[in-house]
Each structure stands twice: as C-alpha cells, then as structure tokens.
Amino acid sequence: MDKQDMNEGQSVFNLSYLKQPKGLWSWLVTLDHKRIALLYLSALIVFFFLGGVFALLMRLELAHVGKQMIDPDTYNILFTLHGVIMIFLFIVPGIPAVLGNFCLPLMLGAKDVAFPRLNLFSYYIYVAGAIMAIIGLSNPADTGWTFYAPYSVRTSTGVIMMTAAAFVLGFSSILTGLNFIVTIHRMRAPGLTWFRLPVFVWGIYATSVIQVLATPVVGMSLVLLIVERMFGLGIFDPKLGGDPVLFQHLFWFYSHPVVYIMVLPAFGIVGEVIPVFSRKPLFGYKMVVFSSVGIAAIGFFVWAHHMFVAGISDPSAKIFSIVTFAVAVPTAIKVFNWVSTMYRGSISLTTPMLYAMAFVFLFLIAGTTGVYLATLAVDVFYHDTYFVVAHFHYTIQGGAVIGLIMGLHYWFPKISGKHYNTIVANIAWALIMIGFNLTFLPQFVLGMEGMPRRYYDYPAEFQNLHTISTVGAFINGVGYMMALINLFVTFVWGKRFAEANPYEAIGLEWRAPSPPPTENFDQQPIVNHGPYDYGRVALH
Amino acid sequence: MSENSSHSHDAHALPDPHDFGHTVPYPVYLKVFVSLLVLTVITVVISRFDFGEFNLVVAMLIASIKALLVALFFMHLKFENKIVWLYAGVPLFLLGVMLIGIFIDNPYRMGDRQPSRTTEHIAPKYNGSSH
Amino acid sequence: MSSVAQHGTTDFGSMDTAPEHRAPPHVHHMDAVTAYHAAKLGMWLFLATEILLFAVLFTAFAIFKWYYFAEFHAASKELNWKLGMFNTAVLLFSSFTAALAVDAAQHGQNRKVVKNLFISIACGGIFLIVKAIEYGAKYSHGMFIGGEHFHQFSNFLSIYYCLTGLHALHVVIGMIVLFWASTKAMRRMYSPVYYTPVELGALYWHLVDLIWIYLFPLLYLIG
Q1: Whole-model pTM?
Q2: Which residues of B touch A246 (CB under 8 A)?
Q3: Is the N end or the C end of chain A the one with fewer CB atoms within 10 Å?
Q4: Which residues pair with C10 in a beta bridge?
C-alpha cells in the first residue's frame, strides 16, 4: 500500500465512528448503532471464552474413564453453565446484536435504527443480565440449561439467580428484535423495496419476529418457576399438584424457535458472502426469502419434538414429528440455492468464502441428523444420547457460530477500516474445521452406541471416541482463539487500511466509507436495482 | 399564525396532521363504552344459568366482542395498516397454537382408555411424604 | 368546531398548545411523520409481547382447570363476583377516558388531556384498592399463600395470584406511563402534529383493560 493510500486510509479512519466522538464516556452513552455493536461484541467474546472454558473442562474430565479431577456434582454445574452462558449470553444475542446492529442501518441506507436510545437500553439490560449471571456463578445451578421441573423446583442450588438472569437477558432480546422490525419497516432508502432487500436483512427480520413473539413465553415460564420455588405454588412440581410436562411444553415453545433465532441470521450471511465471491446473483432470491420466513413460521409448531420420551400422548408425538419433517424443507431449499449460486460462478477462495463453504457442509450434516431425530422410532433411542449433543453442536456451532465468525471476517474491513492477515485467518479456519469435526463426528457414533448425555463417566468401551473428541475440542479452541486474536490485533494495531468497497460488492453498506462516519452516508442513498445483480449492473 | 404545510419541502412547514393518526368522533367513543358496560352485565347474567361447557364458550365469545370493541375503536385498530393488524393478531394465533399443542397431549395420554377428568389420580397431591 | 382545518393547515387558535411546542420535537434521524408511525408500530409490537406473556398464564389456567375442574369450580365461588364486576366497569371507564385523552391531544387541548389521564390514573388506583380488599379477604380466610386453607385450593389460587398479581403490576406500570404522558400535557406540548406519548400510553392502558376483560369471566364466573 503506497503512502498516499495510507494517508487517505488514515484520514477516513480518523473521521469514522471509531474516533468521533472521543473518550470512553462517549462510547458508554453512545446512540450510534455501530458503537453499540462493538459494545455487544466485547461482552460476547468474553462469554464465548468463558463458555468455552467450561466446555474444555468437561472434555478434559471425559477424556478418560473414571474421575480425572471433577466430581459428579461439579460436572452437572459445568454443563449447566456451559449451556446457559453459550446460549443466553453468547449465541442468542449473537449475530443480531453485533452484525445486525452494525450492518442493518447501513444496508437500508439509514442513519441509525428506529429507536437508538432503546438500542442502548437493550445493551444495558444485557449487561444487567450478564452481571446477574456472574453473581449466579457463586451458587451455580446444576439443572442443565433446560431447568426441568421438578428437580429445578427442589434443588438447593442457585436456580433463581440463573433463571432471573435469563429473564432479564430475554428482555434485551425482545427490545432488539422490536427495534429491528420497526427499522426495516420504516427506514428503507428510496427505491429499496422489500424484494430488493439483501437476504441478510430478511434473515434479521425473521429472527426479530421470533425474538419478539417467542421470548415472552420462556420469560413467563421462568418467572413461574421462580415463583414456585419461592412460594411453594403448585404449577410444575407434582408433589404440589403441578405438571412437570407443562414446564417442558412452555419452555420448548420458546426454546425451539430460539434455535432459529441463532441460525437464521447466519443463513443470511451465507446468502451475502456466496454471491459476492462467486460473482453471480443469488440463485432463487425469492425462494431464499420465503424459506427464511417459512422456517420462522413452521419453527413455532414443532416444539414437542424435544419431548417425545417425556410421556406426551401418541397423537401429539406423531403430529409434532410430521411437522418437524416439514421444517427441514425450507432449509434444504436454501442449501440448493447456495450451491446453485456457486455453480459456474467465478469463485474467490477468500476467508469469508471458506467459512461459507464450511457452513454449507456442516449444516448439511446438522440438518440431516435433525431428520433422524425427528423420526419417532429413531428418537426413542437417540434422545438424551450424544447423538443429540452432536446434532445441536453442528447446528449451533457449525451453523450460528461459524456464521458469526464468517460475518466478522466479511464485514471486518467495513467495521475496522483495515485488512486482516489472510494467511493467519485461513490457518485458523482450517484448525476450526479439523477441530470441530474431530470433536463432534465421534459423538454421533457415541450416541448411536448408547452413550448418554450429561453423564460424568462412562464404560470403557466408549473411551477411544471420547479421547478423540477431547483432542478435537482443544484444536477447535485454538482455532477460535487464533481467528479472534488475528481480528483483534488487526483492529487495534493494523496498518493496512481498507477501501470503501474492497470486494466490489453491490449492497448499500459498501457505499459508505470503511469505517463509516457516525452518520453513515453523506447523502441519502437511492436504490434502483437488486442487491445481487452481479454481471448485470455497473458498480459505482 | 397558521402555516401552509402542503409544500413539504419547505423546511419551516409543519407536517400535515392528516399524515398522523385517525380521529374518531366523541359519540362513537361513548357508544362503544356503553356497549362494553351492557356486555359486561350480560356476561354476569348468563353466568348465573348453568349451561355446562357452553358457559365457557359464551363467556369467551362475549369477552372477545368486548375486546374487539376496545381494540378497534379505543385503540384505533380499525384505522391501522395491515402490518399492525398482523402483529396484533399473530400473538392470539400463537396462544391458540400453545393451547392446541398442550391439549392434544394431556387428554390423550391414556391410549385406549377414556381420558378422565377426575382429579386425584391424574396429578395427585402428596401431603409432603413421598411414595 | 374543528381545530384541525381541512387541507393540511394547522390552526392553533382553538388549541392550548404552548407557542414553543407548535412544531413536533426534532428526531435527528427521521422526519416527524415517520417517527410517529415508527413509534406506534413499536408499541403494538410491545403489546404483542405482553399478550404472549399472559398467554402462558392463560394456558396454565386452562390446563389446570381441565385437571382440577371440581377444585376450580369450588374455589371460584370464593371470589366476590360483585367486586370483580365493579372493577371491570372501573377499567372500562378508564379506557374510555384514555381514548378521550388521545382525542384531546389530537386536537391540541392539553388541559383536557391532563383531566382525562388523571381520571384514568384514579380509576387504576380504585382498581388496585379493590384488589387489595379482595386479597385482604383471602388472607383473613387463610387462603393467601402459606395460609391454612391455601392447600385445599392451591392450584386455583396459584394461578389466580399469578394472573391477578401480574395484571396488577401492569396496572401500576400503566399508571406510571399515563402520568409521564400527562406531564407533557402539563407543559402544553401536544398538538395535532405531536401526541405520540399519549397515544402510546393509552395503547398500553387499553391492553391492561383487555387482559382484565378475559380475566374477569375466567376467574370469577366460570371457574
């Protein structure tokens, strides 16, 4: 990069949202969606790390038969904390809070979200919930992140603090979703019709609808659990005349749609990355859009597939099984569309593209193993085994987390104004791919052979696969560390400044400088074509 | 001093009040309120008679009419766009889904046996001692 | 006498809006019309979340009524339907005055806004006092939480206290929101081109009324 580019890059950087206005206080009371996104990102990375540490401690204990260093009660606490932290504190806020906040107004050609003060308020509600969760670490719950009654009513561990934290975090999620829905409805640039929106925006929209509609249900259910613990009411505990399966119904009514909150934005990012690096329009744009909306909708009707062996009636089990098969269809449609986009495209194997291709591969495994679990006769054997654990890690980690990392790399030049080291990034990608599959492919086999989940120890015949899985987990962890440290180091100390549109992409966010100034655009952008018209439209 | 706001590109012009919400005439509000009170009385009177299961249906029907009156007129839903209608209606739809999902479960757990609605053996209450 | 003329002009002659508030407050990233519609959509979305919050309790009520229909029938008789009906009328009236408050704000009649909002708030207060009387009666009959007769009707009473307790909490929140909206009327800020806080506050208040419209028959009459 020659000196003139450096100077220009430096001056764009100095005028950007990163530098204006100055001072820590201006960051803490910011109303700028881009700064709020980074505030969320810093918290999320801390909790990703914490949740990861608990995972690695579990894998260390499970590496060999017998007790290594952790006793059974502590093990129960570890898997509870791993679940609660990774789900409520990391991946549910996840992509919407970081990339949604950062990119949505830019992609719409707007100055900010509809309610900037509400946006900041959502962040501080998240912080409050996070503090409550940290306080809860002093007497951690051991119920699993699912808090099933009656154990959660009777155990002496700190269920109330953990569930109260989850309730508060839910509020943050609701308000963020509300903000995004109104933003998308009311703040699109002139000419930006619904069917010219990037699929990432559609993904955020579908996610936000689920956030708004499903989260109150789990919020109220957890409040009922708290109230039952405190006052001995008879709602879920059979000893008091309550119904424990009712808790499961109410809990999963949210907790199934929540997995679509996690993954729909990731689907959206894949739909952004693949067309850019195939230099081809997204294949079947409308079908991709309808599939996002369809997944969000059908996702509300399948919750009891988590309860097939909880004692629900035969008719309801059959109905929920059939509807669960239906939700696989729109997801498969997306996979076909992504692959068709790449077909005969001009592929550049950039880091985001590597992650996108990994996503397609990993989610293929995730989705198909989900169909096994939807099959009643099969689920009777696989429920509560490692098969389920492997399935949901393929969907959540192979899907949502890979999606987040991919998005961070894809929009990194826009967010930071700099280029990261590609070689380091790609090595990290390879470590994640190797580590992740090494961790979880053996777990499918373990599950099929009958290894139960949430078990602190196991018979000798499962030893080898567990050891392999543990090795994979550490490689996975190193990969994530490398990827994130690479981005962080570049963010703070990098010197290779990025131009406004380094990928020559269509899409309004690439018309703003890298990084953008606080107001995003000098003038209101106007749109007169779709977001993926590669080969059809001259770039600006 | 009144300002003509029909030239919207004039920076000092006020927005047009008609671009905001609908106004409803006072007599409409009054009629709705009186209807609500009447329907409340009807609900109470009907509940005095025993129609068995029908009591619940009738009570919920009347409550829904009252709710519709409040929503359509007091909350101006009658004049809102389709998106607002969607977000007002979908939660009710989901409540229905929740109820259906649970009620295809609980009453049908006993297979060929008739679902029983007597109390103790479905969810017996223990007096502190476990079995 | 309409203070909003026909073709988009705003005649402030018959309003009591303060001169410095003749224009809507500045929102830096949206124009006033968009800001109004955005805020209204936002409030309806928030109401959607509240409906789903109560939906959980209504569902729990339904399933426990199905399990324990005899207990529910007997326990419901312990509730005072006359007080319940009175409270229903009070809330309906408060919804009426809330709607009138919005109407007044739309016509720039700030004093009338204050009057109507205060009536709604007072009605909320009356509702809560009656509720407190009912809870007191429960307590003296040993049917409050931890009371000696609680266990006999525990499933009904658990849901009853959760439902009415959560509803009462929303009445309190609604009263605070309406009061906040009235402070702006006291500063004579409302006009035909700015009345968003009253409208949003009234929407919230109407929801509180809507929930009670269903609670009253379910708890007091059908049980």
Answers
A1: 0.94
A2: 102
A3: C
A4: C4
